[in-house]
Amino acid sequence: MGAGPAALCIASELVQHGLSVSALATHSPQKPWPNTYGIWAKELESLGLESLLEYRWKKTISFFGNGINETGRKPTEHNFDYGLFDQSAFQKALLDKCGDLPWFIETAQDIQFKNSITEVICSSGNIYQARVVIDASGHRSPFIKRPNHGPVAQQAAYGVVGKFSSPPVEENQFVLMDFRPDHLSKSELEEPPTFLYAMDFGKGVFFVEETSLACSPPVSWSKLKERLTSRLSKRGIVIDEIIHEEHCLFPMNLPLPFLNQPLLAFGGSASMVHPASGYMVGALLRRAPSLAKQLAYAISMKPDLDSAELAKSGWQVLWTPELVQRHRLYQFGLQRLMSFDEKLLRSFFDTFFKLPTKDWSGFLANTLNLPRLILVMIRLFFISPTKVKLGMIGIVNFK
Ligand SMILES: Cc1cc2nc3c(=O)[nH]c(=O)nc-3n(C[C@H](O)[C@H](O)[C@H](O)COP(=O)(O)OP(=O)(O)OC[C@H]3O[C@@H](n4cnc5c(N)ncnc54)[C@H](O)[C@@H]3O)c2cc1C
User: Fold this and answer.
1) Does ligand 1 come within 6 angstroms of the Cβ of 108?
2) β-pairing, 103-105 with 59-63?
């Protein structure tokens, strides 16, 4: 169910295993995805998929200083390539891999489990049956059951692809996080912190996006727009032409689904968004093959498994005990970061990117194994300034 990146990643892998697969989505899988997806180039290189990048930046920086003096203006250089997917090439590559998979353009309304099969009841009245159903309908799925841990923090962003009176970032530059707060009033400094994510697309076109890492309730798009405008105007920049506007809102710490439910999930619905960074596409590409392999194995070795048993065997591979532990650590980290004021947050990120590249990039991609992740977190703690240390262990709440 679904036609976003998660659905296409898992469907294409299932097809590769020779399984009989059908797909069901509210719109054609050919319809262009609405979001732009960014990723560290290394993640795609390790999968041999770097040719799917439309843009690739070598000059990748962030600003964590206060921006008022020369030291504050000095960027942190990441020395690590970042890219944006060529959306249509990515979508086409996955669809090609899906072969002649049948697509039903339908909206799932209800799901029922009947003996050995699952029924998907659609708003059209049509009913589809399958041995096992994978819900890849995004984080708003009403079908996937998860515990209620209270309010969920959301990442919110307002962005503009456009032309500007003067360049908002340097030529060929990518800015992961510009946290300089010198455009903010004293009272704004007390509000949830936001940063600029920006890049040069060439030919006088830039993408600038004011982003709130995670907040509950989320920072509103109007607030983010206001912040973006004042950030730009502080540097004497106005937007001359808006080519595209991006409104981004998705949960960062959605609780993990119950892993014994008879419906499987993949992507946003399976809480696969990285709780500390908001990234997911790399994880989809890395984790789809093992889930597909497991389902193919379970179906071929035990032909009489019912939906609940098949789904359970899938959940066990999708969320292994190790991945669950890592997720918990990331959620804990995010929880702490959300208690930081803007000054402390800048100090935290300044320290975080002083970690060796393989450590901070592995942390952000969720590719460090559990012992390594713990070690990196301990190292981060020890190299952090005292105030950040106190914030990390939750002794002091800085808000
Ligand atoms: C604006 C934005 C920017 C993002 N940028 C990045 C990024 O740069 N890098 C990154 O890694 N992650 C990014 N993310 C996070 C995450 O990767 C995306 O949210 C991603 O689109 C989630 O993929 P998905 O396939 O799980 O869900 P979605 O992309 O939401 O797709 C869900 C699909 O299910 C279909 N569907 C929904 N309900 C039904 C139903 N009842 N029946 C049938 N079909 C249904 C929808 O039509 C859609 O095709 C971003 C998210 C947003 C919102």
Assistant:
1) yes
2) unpaired
